[in-house]
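As a warm-up, study this chain.
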Amino acid sequence: RSSDLVAGVCYTYGGIQDLQTPSLQTQLYITLPGLGMMFLYCMISGLSGVYTELILKTQDLPLNLQNLFLYFFGVMMNLMAHLANVQSRGWFEGFSVWVVVIVASQALNGLIMSAVLKHGSNITRLFIISCSMLVNGFLSYLIFSLQLTVLFFLSVLSIGFSVHLYYGKK
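Now compare it with the structure written out below.
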């Protein structure tokens, strides 16, 4: 399958290292196509968030019904892909309990974000996402002994300053 091929390529590429000379410093590689793709990703993400907020706020339907309409397309596409797979032996074939936990938490996250967009704003959603990344980084430091860099603390200051500018005294 193509997904196995992609996973193998990513695993192989990630495993290629020069173990003779371990580097103490991490180098940051920035290329023009990479910057262009990041700009395109940010534009698409921002515009889709604003459009979703517009849809949720302009319709006079209950939030649960709006969520049903919003997720119906994804559920139908996944159902068709599952039914088209003739080798399928069950809904959760090959998945562990942790995968089910991750899927359930992401579904709950989607419902929470739709409530935030319905009653808040897209900016609030972005602040929530930014703060959750900071919490994940801090928990990774505590649980997995992840080494936090200066860029992490710079992002903490940047997010804190942004929240202050947006929600501070007017």
